């Protein structure tokens, strides 16, 4: 049996490990400690409309492909507590916010993405906790959210059941790693092991709030708002919500900043006033593994090494498709996908 070593055991590494083990590889994952992984900090939205920026057509196309892999992925994982929401509402307060949302909705619609316009009243019928100040928005049907911590636990369990071995230590040099093939999936730390990839940290903060007796229950949808020009989202959990997220390119420490936490709290409460009564469970920061053009790096860089990193703001969404593309690369197949451009990867490794 051929041996595969995966460096990094969070959402990307574990998804690749499970898929490779099911394709007949003997897999070992090196993962020292997942506590600081972006995969744990994340909010868990499978966001296409919410995370694609107007004009990023290639990104939108890849995000849609990524989403199309989720039904089968969820079925394989077989755990009905992973899904946290089944669709998303995008809402705005002032005329500038609404204007911005309309532009995004038009762009999405023009590319065949399902968008359902909603008045403020219709939004409050779907989500009674949304502020009466919300003027309008749209529903992005089928844009799920998952409980990313539950997902990590289930992925880890399924990988172990499929025979994946985990070594609790950090890799300091890819040359020291044994295995016929190696997959680099160390998130932002991929830059330390392979600096030429150009992966850099994009820091983001999130808050976790717990439902308190007497308060309105958590929403059923992901609610993404533009409040006073800033983006904020509220993602349901069965016992509370995740509020996010700030973005500071280049920030490389994992401590939340007071100002970021204050903005998130005030914007979330403006979006959904009942959150004022929730308990503040945590404020955390994580490092998204970003790339200069925003697209992930998935593909072969030499005879023994395949990279699966640079997933930026959408690594949870892109986990299933990444595992599939890595398995195909390991099997020697040529990958036909807009995110994989051999020229780009060879540029990155020059
Ligand atoms: C605030 C915030 C909110 C986000 N929200 C979302 C969201 O809603 N939806 C979404 O799709 N994405 C979201 N993301 C992005 C998503 O979290 C990342 O794209 C994704 O988690 C990247 O996964 P990864 O496995 O590549 O990296 P990570 O999750 O960072 O994991 C890398 C792993 O590699 C291990 N490692 C590092 N160095 C070594 C080494 N030398 N040897 C061995 N192991 C090593 C680490 O311990 C870590 O466990 C968010 C990110 C942030 C910060």
UniProtKB/TrEMBL annotation:
This is glycine oxidase. GO terms for molecular function: flavin adenine dinucleotide binding; glycine oxidase activity. Residues 5-328 form the FAD dependent oxidoreductase domain. The keyword Oxidoreductase applies. Keywords: Oxidoreductase, Signal, Thiamine biosynthesis. It comes from the Bacteria. InterPro entries: FAD-dep_OxRdtase, FAD/NAD-bd_sf, Gly_oxidase_ThiO. It catalyses: glycine + O2 + H2O = glyoxylate + H2O2 + NH4(+). GO terms for cellular component: cytoplasm. Pathway: Cofactor biosynthesis; thiamine diphosphate biosynthesis. GO terms for biological process: thiamine biosynthetic process; thiamine diphosphate biosynthetic process. It is an enzyme of class 1 (oxidoreductase). Its EC number is 1.4.3.19. It comes from Williamsia limnetica. Residues 1-20 form the signal peptide.
């Amino acid at each position: 049996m051929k041996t595969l070593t995966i460096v990094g055991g969070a959402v990307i590494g574990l998804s690749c490990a499970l898929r490779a083990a099911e394709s007949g590889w003997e897999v070992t994952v090196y993962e020292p400690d997942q506590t600081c992984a972006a995969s744990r900090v994340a909010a868990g939205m499978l966001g296409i409309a919410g995370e694609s920026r107007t004009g990023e057509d290639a990104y939108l196309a890849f995000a849609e492909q990524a989403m199309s892999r989720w039904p089968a992925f969820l079925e394989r994982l077989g755990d009905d507590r992973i899904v946290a929401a089944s669709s998303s509402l995008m809402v705005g307060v002032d005329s500038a916010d609404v204007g911005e949302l309309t532009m995004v909705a038009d762009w999405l619609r023009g590319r065949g993405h399902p968008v359902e316009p909603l008045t403020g009243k219709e939004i409050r019928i779907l989500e009674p906790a949304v502020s009466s100040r919300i003027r309008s928005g749209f529903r992005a049907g089928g844009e799920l959210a998952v409980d990313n911590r539950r997902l990590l636990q289930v992925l880890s369990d399924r990988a172990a059941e499929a025979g994946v071995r985990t070594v609790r230590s950090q890799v300091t040099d890819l040359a020291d790693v044994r295995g016929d093939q190696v997959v680099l999936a160390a998130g932002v730390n991929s830059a330390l092991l392979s600096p030429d990839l150009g992966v850099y940290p994009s820091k983001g903060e999130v808050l976790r709030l717990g439902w308190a007796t007497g308060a309105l229950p958590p929403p059923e949808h992901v609610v993404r708002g533009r409040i006073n020009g800033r983006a904020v989202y509220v993602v349901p959990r069965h016992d509370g919500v995740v509020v996010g997220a700030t973005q500071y390119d280049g920030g490389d420490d994992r401590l939340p900043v007071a100002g970021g936490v204050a903005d998130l709290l005030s914007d979330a409460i403006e979006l959904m006033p009942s959150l004022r009564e929730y308990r503040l469970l945590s404020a955390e920061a994580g490092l998204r593994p970003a790339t200069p053009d925003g697209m992930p790096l998935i593909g072969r860089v030499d005879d023994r090494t395949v990279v699966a990193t640079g997933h930026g703001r959408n690594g949870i969404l892109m986990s299933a498709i990444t595992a599939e593309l890595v398995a195909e690369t390991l099997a020697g197949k040529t990958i036909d996908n807009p995110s994989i451009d051999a020229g780009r990867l060879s540029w990155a490794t020059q």
